[in-house]
Amino acid sequence: MPAPYNPFSSWFGAFQLPLSGNVAERISAPMFSPSLTINDGSDQAIEARVVNEIASYGKQIGWLNDVILALAEHANLPDHVTRTVHRIAEATQKIEELKAAAANDALGKAVESLNFLEQHQPAVYARLLQERSQILPQ
User: Fold this and answer.
1) Sign of the C-alpha dihedral computed for residues 83, 86, 88 and 94 taken in this order
2) CA atoms within 13 A on the CB side of 9
């Protein structure tokens, strides 16, 4: 038995609900970027170059943390400052653990990809090894 006639079906058919189409696409929008914009009168172009060409905010904070921890190691600090330094040390350790885990994950994914290429696309795998052997020092 055919479906009953719906006069709105052709009109609504022209629209797609969110995530009802092809959702396997790359989304690149500033709202998903890990950048930070502060309107403090600084030159935004210079700030962007510093972060992109010299050191990210995280790297700069890491350097400061290293200095704080090194100086605090030999200083006679009040208790409340000592507690703060301890929190900085704990956070720094957790950050290093996250970095190590991410590096291991990346290595694991690379090995998995290489194994896949070796099994399923041996010619591509051989070409990759050939190109890499020319780039890597002996």
Assistant:
1) negative
2) 5
CA within 13 Å, CB half, 55: 8
* Alpha helix segments (H runs only) across 3-121: 9-12, 44-49, 57-73, 79-120
Name 91's Cβ contacts closer than 8 Å, sequence gap at least 6.
65
Instruction: Please count the structural domains in the chain.
Output: 1
- Judge whether 129 lies within some domain: yes
CA distance 85 to 93: 12
Chain segment 70-123, per-residue pLDDT in tens = 999 999 999 999 999 999 999 999 999 999 999 889 999 999 999 999 999 999
**Torsions phi, psi of 104, nearest 5?**
-65, -40
CA dist., res. 27 & res. 119, Å (int) = 31
Cα–Cα distance measured from residue 96 to residue 18, given in angstroms and rounded to the nearest whole number: 39
Q: Does 82 fall in a domain?
A: yes
Cα separation of the two ends of the chain = 74
CB of 128 within 8 A of CB of 117? yes
Residue type, 138: Q
